[in-house]
Design a protein that fits this description.
By secondary structure, the protein is mostly helical. It contains 21 helices and two strands. It has a two-stranded antiparallel sheet. Helix 8 packs antiparallel against helix 10. The protein is globular.
């Protein structure tokens, strides 16, 4: 049906008779509008106000017809009623603004909990420092790992909007339960000072711990499923096939990070201050209120969204390629890649050829073993093979894209391991320093993480307004620099964040142990500042890189993969802490991170270890990014397929599911 509609549009463009009829229709319509407007003006101002909407509808219809005649068709997205979306009414930056609203409020709510959670675990739940750090990293890791579930449900069954709405309420219920648990004394262990009397403090166990973890992981489930869909749904408001909107898409990604920075800044200043001075129960309640505001923002834009409908399981076509390739593993692929798209003509019986489809993605030479999924064995019976035995070239190439991006994804795990330290050990660093700003005001240690976001609120608009247009003139890239280059810059700067952290921790520890002097908390500001700058490059570049892959119908899942990198990074942080303690426990001090007192631990050595791992990871990224770019440029330069407007729907990953079974007529 999509092919037929596309063919109609092309016919309208090429048929002089239909062009003449359309021109006559528009002429008659314009005369009718002018007549109606004249009568209205002569009648009364009240009639004019009543008929202006009709004039607007006629003008809107005329614009829509001109868009259709120019080949622009919004047939891949629908409005809230399931009808084809209107490019004039739906989508664009206006619709994306409502999504930016929920993104800002949601990160505000979750950041206020996650960034100060270690303080609550130690002071209220009486867990040890190492255990508290692992609880935080496991919680944050679970949030980002569950993003895969959110992306899968969105692309396969629910769509981005309904996934955000459903799991947004799940996250809200978790915040409310956390607030109740923090408010009622019977749901917490008896009050105790962990710094002065830590050995006698009673750790939360049994029902108290169960209620806490149920509430915490309700938040994790909701936030994890909401996060990838916020980015994907906002980006879906722009048509990538339109050059003007494609440029706006890059602006949207920067705007999304700006909204993220605003949410983080408010969470790390106002909300953390509320938690510190009014109690964690009030702080969790404010997080619940922020999440409620985000849901209101999401629902408010319902009439303006262009929604991509779910298209069934996104894993089925992936599994079909691997099953088909494995079942034909003993076959030999032709050495001439042109046979992928050759004519089947007079093919003798029992001869092996490759199935193809028109409008397929440019064939790549990577992972040629998967091409065996396209092998079609002619036995003279002219029977159709099962989709689990025969796949289309497009389907195979999209699986190749998924495999190709895995190394890029893996190179960002160490980056997020560094982020985990800034939310755990660096907060404890601040707790061991002088937090006094004035005689009556003390800076909450968790609020120190707001420093980079204060900078980024000014830097991100400047980056998009000045740097991107300037770099675009030099590179010709619509984003100024490519997403891979942006990721590389961020990974390089992240190393210096840990170098600064190690130097400052050594200085802080020596001052406290040798002279009893407590340094100001601002001494550790550089490590946050440098990492915030590097995150602006890496986080936005990674999201843009994944979203712009040629996998239609999988944008939410691909965006979820970027959050999955955060998950693995935080889990790796927990593993590193345990391994470092185990390996260094043979020394006289019992391990680098064994004690609850940073003056006895060697956090500076742990930071140096992370700095070395970060630099090695950067070198590893240089190798894989060049490998990815080289393979892509090679496949592009050796391919000369012409992709027509009517073939657009062949790009859909899910539309390629059953293409293999119908591929018996090769052009």
């Amino acid at each position: 049906m999509d092919m037929i509609s596309s063919y109609r549009i092309r016919t309208v463009k090429t048929s002089p008779r239909i062009k003449w009829r359309a021109w006559l229709y528009k002429l008659r319509a314009s005369h009718f509008i002018c007549l109606k407007l004249s009568i209205t003006i002569l009648a009364s101002p009240i009639s004019l106000s009543l008929l202006l909407p009709c004039f607007g509808r006629e003008r809107e219809r005329s614009k829509r017809e001109s868009l259709e005649m120019s080949g622009v068709c919004e047939d891949t997205t629908v409005d809230w009623r399931g009808r084809p979306s209107n490019p004039i009414k739906h989508g664009g930056m206006k619709a994306a603004t409502f999504v930016l609203g929920i993104q800002s409020f949601e990160i505000m709510a979750i950041a206020a909990v996650g960034n100060n959670l270690i303080t609550y675990l130690i002071n209220e739940m009486h867990f040890s420092l190492a255990k508290s750090a692992n609880i935080v990293t496991n919680f944050v890791g679970t949030v980002f790992l569950l993003a895969l579930l959110g992306g899968y449900l969105s692309d396969s069954y629910l769509g981005s909007f309904w996934t955000m709405l459903i799991f947004g309420f799940v996250e809200l219920s978790g915040f409310i339960l956390l607030s109740v648990q923090a408010h009622l004394p019977q749901l917490k262990p008896p009050p105790c000072n962990m710094l002065s009397d830590g050995e006698h403090c009673k750790e939360a166990k049994g029902m108290k711990a169960l209620i806490f973890f149920v509430a915490l992981y309700l938040v994790a489930l909701g936030s994890g499923c909401v996060k990838p869909n916020m980015i994907a749904h906002g980006a879906d408001q722009f048509n990538q096939d339109n050059p003007k909107q494609s440029k706006k898409l890059s602006t949207y990604f920067n705007a999304a990070y700006f909204a993220f920075s605003v949410g983080e800044l408010i969470a790390l200043t106002i909300l953390v201050w509320v938690q510190t001075h009014s109690g964690m129960d009030v702080g969790f309640g404010v997080s619940a209120a922020a999440m409620a505001m985000g849901l209101i923002s999401l629902v408010s834009g319902t009439l303006y969204y262009r929604n991509k409908a779910p298209q069934g399981s996104i894993f089925t076509p992936i599994a079909q390629v691997f099953v088909a390739a494995f079942s034909k593993r003993k076959q030999v692929c032709p050495s001439n890649r042109q046979s992928l798209h050759g004519s089947q003509g007079n093919v003798p019986n029992n001869h092996v050829t490759l199935s193809s489809d028109t409008g397929s993605l440019l064939h790549t030479e990577k992972f040629r073993f998967l091409d065996k999924a396209c092998l079609k064995i002619q036995d003279g019976a002219n029977t159709k093979e099962s989709p689990w035995r025969l796949c289309s070239v497009t389907q195979v190439n999209q699986v190749k894209i998924l495999i190709s991006v895995v190394p890029i994804f893996a190179c960002t795990i160490i980056f997020n391991t560094i982020l985990a330290q800034l939310q755990t050990f660096s907060v404890q660093q601040g707790s061991a320093m002088n937090t006094q700003l004035t005689k009556s005001f003390h800076i909450p240690p968790a609020s120190l993480q707001a420093i980079p976001y204060i900078l980024l609120i000014f830097v991100v608009p400047l980056y998009d307004t000045f740097f991107v247009p300037f770099a675009r003139k030099i590179t010709g890239h619509e984003s100024g620099i490519s997403p891979l280059q942006r990721i590389g810059f961020g990974l390089f700067f992240a190393t210096f964040s840990m170098v600064a952290a190690a130097i400052m921790e050594k200085k802080r520890r020596d001052s406290a142990v040798n002279s009893g002097k407590i340094l100001s908390i601002f001494w550790i500001a550089p490590q946050f500042l440098i990492f915030g700058f590097s995150e602006m490059f890496t986080a936005v570049g990674l999201i843009e890189f994944f979203y712009k892959q040629s996998l239609k119908g999988m944008q939410a899942f691909l965006t979820a993969m970027t959050y999955c990198s955060y998950s693995f990074g935080f889990y790796l942080s927990s593993l590193l802490v345990s391994l470092v303690n185990k390996i260094t426990s043979s020394s006289s001090n019992g391990g680098w991170l064994h004690e609850n007192d940073l003056n006895k631990d060697r956090l500076d050595l742990f930071y140096w270890l992370l700095a070395a791992l970060s630099f090695l990871n950067f070198l590893n990224y240089l190798f894989w990014s060049r490998w990815y770019s080289a393979n892509n440029s090679t496949s592009s330069s050796t391919s000369h397929l012409e992709i027509h407007a009517e073939d657009y729907n062949h790009y859909s990953f899910n539309n390629a599911k059953n293409a293999g079974a119908d591929d018996h007529n090769i052009p």
